[in-house]
What we know:
Elements: E1 7-11, H1 21-34, E2 38-43, H2 48-51, E3 56-59, H3 64-82, E4 87-90, H4 96-106, E5 110-114, H5 117-120, H6 124-136, E6 139-142, H7 145-153, E7 161-163, H8 179-183, E8 191-195, H9 204-210, H10 212-218, E9 223-227, H11 241-252, E10 258-262, H12 266-275, E11 278-281, H13 295-302, E12 307-310, H14 315-318, E13 325-328, H15 333-345, H16 353-362, H17 365-381
Parallel strand pairs: 1-2, 1-4, 2-3, 4-5, 5-6, 6-7, 8-9, 8-11, 9-10, 11-12, 12-13
Helix pairs in contact: 1-17, 3-4, 4-6, 9-11, 10-15, 13-16
Amino acid sequence: xxxxxxxxxxxxxxxxxxxxxxxxxxxxxxxxxxxxxxxxxxxxxxxxxxxxxxxxxxxxxxxxxxxxxxxxxxxxxxxxxxxxxxxxxxxxxxxxxxxxxxxxxxxxxxxxxxxxxxxxxxxxxxxxxxxxxxxxxxxxxxxxxxxxxxxxxxxxxxxxxxxxxxxxxxxxxxxxxxxxxxxxxxxxxxxxxxxxxxxxxxxxxxxxxxxxxxxxxxxxxxxxxxxxxxxxxxxxxxxxxxxxxxxxxxxxxxxxxxxxxxxxxxxxxxxxxxxxxxxxxxxxxxxxxxxxxxxxxxxxxxxxxxxxxxxxxxxxxxxxxxxxxxxxxxxxxxxxxxxxxxxxxxxxxxxxxxxxxxxxxxxxxxxxxxxxxxxxxxxxxxxxxxxxxxx
Length: 391
């Protein structure tokens, strides 16, 4: 029996088993809305087993973006024939046109989540179809102040724009101390951790070239551990990003100081946050691409792990300068390297711990869910006066 609050139809390709910050966020959206609404999801292949507890799921049989979109159309029609949703939600700009069509057929409001890239992607066909659909939404939910600014530039009206930062598991699951170090043979070496897709905007190539050599001058046993891989199914992918990192490392003679861990389990990722000395997030400003929020910085903070990166895009929300880490003027690799060395020099590395834990606590998934459900209720009531401030 439908829950009295209503029914949600969520159309999103950004769900597990695909990996990334957007996928983590949308899986939590399903979970949080499932506590109050009857939720139906049209997700990617294999997504059923990740959302069955919280929603009915129609998983597309096709793989890849085009395959998903083609298969999602008949599934959307099937869902609408079975029940009329109270609201339709698009997980990103990619699915906004299809979600817009569903909302028109069902005569209900539309909510679109935007993450940054879906507002600046340069493909003409995408911009011609997706941006008008995003602008048509009753509410557009941005993941940071930076993304909200991009949404305004794309023509989203201010009274339809909400900024709700992603959450984090807090307190995090307990992990066995030293597990990550033992798994990858790191022993007691200083560990600089990088987590994320291997794409140019993550800035690892210039970091290895301009900052890592200086760090190793002062800490010759340090190692850069890279968790993640090239995203072969994303809107933008890294092409030969790993090869570029390896080529730079060979040229500057740092091969033995870089460890590619590839994709690891969530449990092992938690162990990595627990065992590392710091998280590096040297995002660079990249035409046609942005870092919408930077969820890994918030995940690291839940373990008391500080982040060192540049003050660009959504990192200005996910990292609190001098409280949960350090943010530097873009391109100032010398200052970044000096700060990393200073941190590694400390015998007691708990300087940022309290700030990190407090930041993570303010951004628990429970707090995120409360804001999201309030936004949905407001949208259904057609109350445009609701305000959601970035915390």
